Amino acid sequence: MLLMFLILCSIVILLLVAVLKDLTGKKEVEKEEELPIVAEEVNLTEEERDTLFDLVSLYDDSFIQYDGTMEPLAMTTEEKLDFVYRLNNTEKKEWNIDWDRSVSLAKINSILESYFGKGAALMTQDDYLCPLDQLPLLIYDDITESYTLDLEDHGHGPLPFLEVENYYQKGEKKEDIYTIQVKKAFSNLITDPSFVPMTYYATYTDAVFSQNQMFDLYAIYGEDALIDTEEKVKRQYLEHKEKFPIYTYVFQKEGDSFYLLELTKE
């Protein structure tokens, strides 16, 4: 009898162990299934790289003037209007922008949301003041809900600008977030579009204040600096590239379009 009792006890114990193992295994599987899937960072395709690189050049028309970290949604009304006003001629034509005939508030908000995402629309409808004389340059009309260019009281030429040469460093994507890093060579400020800039700097601020010059093409090449100028800028950049900071652009992809989330300078 004792032997039978011991055998029965052993069988019960084995059954309990088997049940516990089964339950433990199920819990481990459940835990594994509950673990979040971490998206991998992968390199950009050539097409993605070219698309984002072209966008970087577009943002250079205005947005690059911020030297530190900048989040588009933190821009002021004046900064947003400055971006739209300085869009290059190709973009103006695509958006059918004609400041002389006025541009609707709805169109301006569509442009801002296209480049900076939802929430980038103007929160207030202030006039845009000219950076040179602080007089109204784009005037808002409450009745027509549009902005019109006013050049009447401005005794100066076009707004100064600078040329920016971008040099790709690397890019990656993680789900719908795309990042591209570039280094930049900024020319001296230009007031005449026919003028070929000769002096280059590593940051926007240095270029504006003509400080910490990286190189002067005319001092290096003389009159030959006017021949294949872009190639000469690249050659000089490569000789000094360690002194140029990295600019990181973070984009959100939505459908087939990208809009800028953040720009930082390291």
Q: What's the overall geometry?
A: globular
Query: What share of the residues does DSSP label as strand, in percent?
Result: 15-25%
Number of helices: 8
H/E element string? HEHHHEHEEEEEEHEHHEE
Largest sheet: 7 strands, antiparallel
How far apart the termini lie comes to 83 Å
Unreliable stretches, pLDDT < 50, 5 or more residues?
Answer: 5-9, 12-17, 26-39
Count of distinct strands? 11
Helix vs. strand class? alpha+beta
Number of domains: 2
Relative helix content: 25-40%
Mean pLDDT across every amino acid position: 84
Rg, Cα atoms, Å: 29 Å
Question: How would you characterize the overall build of this protein?
Answer:
The protein is built from 8 helices and 11 strands. By secondary structure, the chain is an alpha+beta fold. The chain has 2 domains: 62-149; 164-265, no CATH class. Strands 1, 6, 7, 8, 9, 10 and 11 form a 7-stranded antiparallel beta sheet that branches. A 4-stranded antiparallel beta sheet has the order 2-5-4-3.
Helices and strands, with pairings:
Blueprint: H1 2-34, E1 42-43, H2 46-59, H3 77-85, H4 89-95, E2 103-104, H5 105-116, E3 128-129, E4 136-141, E5 146-149, E6 164-174, E7 177-187, E8 199-201, H6 204-209, E9 215-216, H7 217-221, H8 229-240, E10 246-254, E11 257-265
Antiparallel strand pairs: 1-6, 2-5, 3-4, 4-5, 6-7, 7-8, 7-10, 8-9, 10-11
